[in-house]
Amino acid sequence: MQDVMSMLNSLRRPRLLIRAARIGACDYSRTRHLQRLLGYGTLPRPGAALMRLIEMESALDTMRHDGDAGYSLTRHLDVLIAMMGEAQILRARPE
Fold first, then answer.
1. CA distances from 53 to 49, 76, 81 (A)
2. Smallest Cα–Cα separation from 71: which of 62, 84, 80, 79?
3. How far is Cα 4 from Cα 93, in angstroms, rounded to an integer?
4. What is the pLDDT of residues 57-73, one digit of tens each?
5. Which of 1, 16, 81, 82 has a CB 3.0–4.6 Å from the CB of 24, allowing a cystine?
């Protein structure tokens, strides 16, 4: 999982977006947030969920940079909150 963590550490996003995601991560609920973002059903393990969230966030960031009309700031923020929450779960797990 260290590769996933190094991927997260290398992300560079606007400060305001990260600050808002950190505030939202305090109230992160894995069941509620992941089901809304990844679809209903069995939740993936934290590592697998984090990889899917990273892919989703990368696509959203590309849309943001391109000025795409379909870009949703709230969706981007939701994905960042979930990424931070899943990263906290992974860090808390014993290796």
1. 6, 10, 10
2. 62
3. 14
4. 999 999 999 999 999 99
5. 81
Record the pTM: 0.86
**The pLDDT of residue 94:** 65
Query: What residue spans of the chain are helical by DSSP H?
Result: 2-10, 15-25, 30-38, 46-66, 73-92
d(CA 37, CA 68): 20
Per the document, the length of the chain is: 95
| Residues 47, 24: Cα–Cα separation, whole Å | 20
Identify the CA nearest to 32 among candidates 88, 95, 78.
78
Report the candidate in 49, 73, 77 with the shortest Cα–Cα distance to residue 63. 73
For residue 11, what are its two tokens? 């992300």
Tell me the C-alpha distance between 82 and 37, whole Å: 9
